[in-house]
Description:
Elements: H1 2-22, H2 25-35, H3 39-57, H4 61-75, H5 79-113, H6 119-132, H7 136-151, H8 156-178, E1 179-180, E2 183-184, H9 188-217, H10 225-258, H11 262-302, H12 306-342, H13 346-361, H14 363-378, H15 382-407, H16 410-433
Antiparallel strand pairs: 1-2
Helix pairs in contact: 1-8, 1-11, 1-12, 2-3, 2-8, 2-9, 3-6, 4-5, 4-7, 4-10, 4-11, 5-6, 5-7, 5-9, 5-10, 6-9, 7-9, 8-9, 10-11, 10-15, 10-16, 11-12, 11-13, 11-14, 12-13, 12-14, 13-16, 14-16, 15-16
Amino acid sequence: MAHEHDREILRLAVPAFLALVAEPMFLLADAAIVGHLGTPQLAGQGIAAVVLQTAVGLCIFLAYGTTASVARRVGAGDEKGALAQGVDGVWLAVLIGIVVTVLGVALTGPLVGAFGAGSSVEGYATTYLRIAWLGTTPLLVMLATTGVLRGLQDTRTPLVVAVLGNGANIGLNLLLVYGVGPVDGLGIVGSAIGTVLAQLLSAAALLAVVVRGARASGASLAPDLPGIRAAARAGVALVIRTVTLRASLLVTTVAVTVGSTGHDRAVSLATHQVAITLWTFLAFVLDAIAIAAQAITGRYLGAGDVAGTRAVTRRMVRWGVASGVACGVLLAAASPFLGPLFSGDPEVHDLLVPVLVVAALGQPVAGVVFVLDGVLIGAGDGRYLAWAGLAVLVAYAPAAFVAAYVAGGLVAVWVAFAAVFMGARLVLLTRRAWSDRWMVTGVS
């Protein structure tokens, strides 16, 4: 039975991991291409990217919630209902996308001005962001349709679209930024337009797959207001969960800032940025198993298979531990050599090693936390995740600042991050997972 679960987990997790790695390539490609225009252009694009990532990141529930609800219907043998629920999620993405686009365009000036980056950088940021907002609806549709396909136990199609979309993004950016032959390039404007067009193409490809499936099953493509409202209500708890996680990461950065002064502050912030970047990359590995957990858990509970849910959860936790240990060992072993890849400052190199060792020690815990987070999302237990996120934030924020002020230094803040933030999440999630409260069967 374990081997059967292993094949299923790998079948979903491996393509999910590759797709997760492909997603940041949109922004990396933009940065690489725009960077050759000049430093102000790159800085402006960076500010716009932060704003867009925040807005879209808060809507990740469109993927997670849709995965869980569709997977339940699949487990219950109701493919038509699964796709109908998926279509409701897509319509919700369209509605949210329109609202965010309108508000984003209207508020671009104040949002960019809040960074205080100077007139030249702000000009490029404003230009890029106003155009880039037009890609919000396609991005949210991509989230929702990806959630539908994951719920249908298909993680390969989003991977294929992600790879092709990135290829189109690079090609369009090069063409529109620098031009070709007698056609002049558009500079940073071309980068924004090229990225929006690539997002439109990717969203259209994923949407076509979902629409074809809905038609084949007889599911309606028309907007269903009760279904859309239900999807929105289910998403509120996941939004709170996401906000608390992002707030905890922000607390970490602020604690690093206030815990150092002068030159040490610059070194600490630079080192912290490298460390959090590496942590985020390793999170893709662990999050891939969490995505598999969402799809598998929803399907098992939809089928009413409580024993199977328990068995596959235990197996996925083992995968999480094993992946976390592997990531931790690799990160610790590589820690002396990673600094020069990101910085030429010897002080950053020296400080990064102990920080990465702390991060490495936290990887096995992160492996379990990510998996159980995915299991409970797949079970539709968003309300508990929201309350747990708030509880963790309340516990972690003072611990982070105590570490910064009392112990002092970046390493102390990272110890608090690994021990208190990740430790509190581990306690709350394992306690919930080993209870029966989240194991609600059927399609509700």
